[in-house]
Amino acid sequence: MKTGLWVATSGLVPGALLECVPPACRRRIDLLRPSAAEAAADVLVEGPEWPVEGATHFVPSLAVLAELPYSARLELSVRVSGTWSAWTAGAGLGPAPFIPLPAVDGVDADIDVFRARAPVESARLRLRLRGPEAAAVLAMPWMLALSASDTSPVRGEVHDEPDVRLQVPAHCQMDADPAIARRICSPTCVAMVLDFWRRPVRLDTLAADMFNPATDLYGVWPAAIVTASRRGLAGYVLRFPDWASAAWCLRRGLPIIASVRYAGGELTGAAVPQTAGHLLTLTGWQGDEVLVNDPGAAGAASVARRYRLDELARVWLERTGVGYVIFPLPPERFRGG
Asked: What's the total number of domains in the chain?
């Protein structure tokens, strides 16, 4: 599967971001000095045109390294056969409601994923920002990212590298309020990674921050990146093309929060017997087994698990392939203006 990650940033050094993206997925990083245009109560920032030749699957994300209050929505326009589509939008991020955009012929928006019905030539990503301190938000370091990919088959997995094990703290979603415990795998995985980077946050706080009232979901993918960035961490959502790209992240000390989907019996020893959508944290591998922290375990003592690489590749890479990568940036990686 051909995958690329395009980034537009203000206030962050491009090289620092590239160091945290698998080489096979690196594309462009554009530096922006946004001149925000007012549109009613919203501030709009439009990114550059990105050459995503052949892509049909798009996942955007936003990271603003600030604790300021705001709501945001990521909007996409694509060019097919020389013609740009109207803007279309996924779920809003934050408490403020947004007026839905009309449906766009040829592009389907599904909460956090955009799918084009025909291969795309170019794409543009737009940030719609709302809040009393929108100008102050844009003055802080921030990044927009777009994962763009086609639907090529996942390459066969070859694995003969030395073992890797990251010491990611184990958290169990079942320890939360029973009313939401089965719904918060994504906040629980984000809690693990924040704890790994020594920025621990209470699980109930993270769940409240990540909850999307418009969809009644805790697992909107870009919301995980927004929530982590409020704690000073950068990040992106990526559709991983193969195990080699995931292994690259893990070798460099970057845990991956992976979105999986499987029927009963497809994932041996799974904490959740079957699922239409679940998040777990990849922490390394040993031989042909992937080391994971699965928040769906019955208790914290059984969160750390091993899943067969061939099975995990099937239920992750061949299904969604989507993963969050969250990481700190040292102060010298910031730039003024």
From this structure: 2
